[in-house]
Amino acid sequence: MIYITGDTHGEYNDTVNRFAQMGLKKGDTVIVCGDFGFVGRIGGKHQYYLKKLAAEEYAILFVDGNHENFDMLETYPIVEYCGGKAHKIAENIYHLMRGQIFDIEGKRYFTFGGAYSIDKYMRKEGRSWWKQEIPTSEDYNEAADNLEKAGYKVDFVVTHTIPDSMIYRIGKNTDVHDAELTGYFEWLYRKLDFEKWFAGHWHINRCFDDRFYILYDDMIEVGG
Asked: In the chain, what are the domains?
């Protein structure tokens, strides 16, 4: 069975309790919509928690959010996973890279992480903030190549933040620093042939039109 949930932020107890409530078991997969937060500094508490998660019998997949240790994340090997590029964190934990399409249990997932940190001014570069949170031209080009090959048709979309129109629907305003990314997602939202879109980042649980899910601590079963 495959489940999708929102940000976990490296909070071990909250995360495993959330997973346990859904009865995750061997052979199941959970996808986190960014701000996974367990890939931290060597010797830090998150490394300890990561080892505990690596001992679980279910698979944990995640797109990157804006609160990831990207410097550490990029030290992990890039491998092919279910047809797309991923960082292999452990035997059961993979970071689904930007602009990829993964075939997981017969469904195609398009993934594109990243977002802007509005609290960047309170953070320290290389310790609590990383410039890699914002996608590069290479990320967008990778997405274009893969989506063109797929005929702009996928089953599910997994991102961290959301399109412009969805930002307005939750009563928020777009941010100039995030405009390229959220504008790109707005274009994709209108261009793509997809079944459901899942995102995190906004710390709310909302569903629009029975196909666009903004998740925080809710978990959605998507089959398998």
From this structure: 2-223 (3.60.21)
